[in-house]
Automatic annotation (TrEMBL):
InterPro entries: AB_hydrolase_fold (IPR029058), Esterase-like (IPR000801), Mycobacterial_A85_antigen (IPR050583). Pfam families: Esterase (PF00756). This is Alpha/beta hydrolase. One of its GO terms (molecular function) is hydrolase activity. It comes from Paenibacillus rhizoplanae. SUPFAM superfamilies: alpha/beta-Hydrolases. It comes from the Bacteria.
Length: 258
């Protein structure tokens, strides 16, 4: 089903607004036993973040050409989220922007499609679950149950969100994929037990632009979810494999979670 309400944004949703409270984006470094080094991530804390309150956490993943700066540089999540907070449309959450290429040289340089680099996007499952999440939960004032943890991403990060979110239902109750890439597992592998997945997830979001050459990935996933009655939100929107679709994904998904 296509939902028109999920394809329109409030005017100026991604424009810096004067006179509102702002969150903060900082760079963190965390020890990764998975990779064997110290890795970078960005963390957005919302306006008024205070250790006397407990926050939910959204892990927001980048694409094949990106790193921990990609969302920040191109997607301006801090502006989108600050505006939503000013309009009282978000639950208290922090947003973590990791580097999803879990290898020693995790820069998006050289052949970004090289097999070892693609493999590193799969290795990230261990880094996320065993290294990054424990670091965030030890260093921020956050809720640590699955109901307060969400995973979403664009393209390769959308594939990761489906692969890792649906494979770890004990850890995530909210999963979103924007323009999921061909790293997305076949639907039968993503959801071997439709009843179990259906019961576990609060929101399962798929969106993609109608001009995106990778849309077959979302189409096949959506078709399987529909056939097997796995509740999900499917948003086919006007657009290509590009930022307007991904920013809308964040804007819409963030308002649905927690
Ligand atoms: C592919 C085409 C695109 C692929 C990945 C991508 C793993 C990723 C695109 C992106 O992250 O924007 O064949 O294979």
């Amino acid at each position: 089903m296509n939902h028109q309400k999920y394809t329109t944004q409030a005017a100026g949703y991604d424009q810096e607004r004067e006179g509102i409270e702002r969150g903060k984006i900082t760079m963190i470094e965390y020890p990764s036993a998975t990779v064997g080094n110290t890795r970078k991530a960005r963390v957005y804390t919302p306006p008024g973040y205070s250790s006397t309150e407990k926050y939910s956490v959204l892990y927001l993943l980048h694409g094949i050409g990106g790193d921990e700066d990609e969302w920040y540089t191109h997607g301006t999540p801090q502006i989108i989220l600050d505006n939503l907070y000013a309009d009282h449309k978000l639950k208290p959450m922090i947003v973590v922007l990791p580097n999803g290429r879990a290898m020693l040289n995790d820069r998006a340089e050289g052949d970004i499609f090289a097999p070892d680099k693609l493999e590193a996007f799969a290795t990230f499952e261990s880094d996320l679950l065993n290294d990054l999440i424990p670091y965030i939960e030890a260093n921020y004032s956050v809720l640590t149950d699955r109901g307060h943890r969400a995973l979403a991403g664009l393209s390769m990060g959308g594939g990761q969100s489906l692969n890792m979110g649906l494979n770890n239902l004990d850890r995530f109750a909210w999963v979103g994929a924007f323009s999921a890439a061909p790293n997305t597992k076949e639907p039968e592998l993503l959801v071997p037990d439709p009843q179990k997945t259906s019961a576990a997830l609060n929101v399962l979001w798929l969106s993609c632009g109608d001009l995106d050459s990778l849309k077959y990935v979302s189409d096949r996933t959506h078709a399987y979810f529909s056939e097997h009655k796995v509740p999900h939100i499917w948003v086919e929107e006007q657009g290509d494999h590009d930022w307007p679709v991904w920013k809308n994904g964040l804007y819409q998904f963030a308002q649905l979670i927690f």
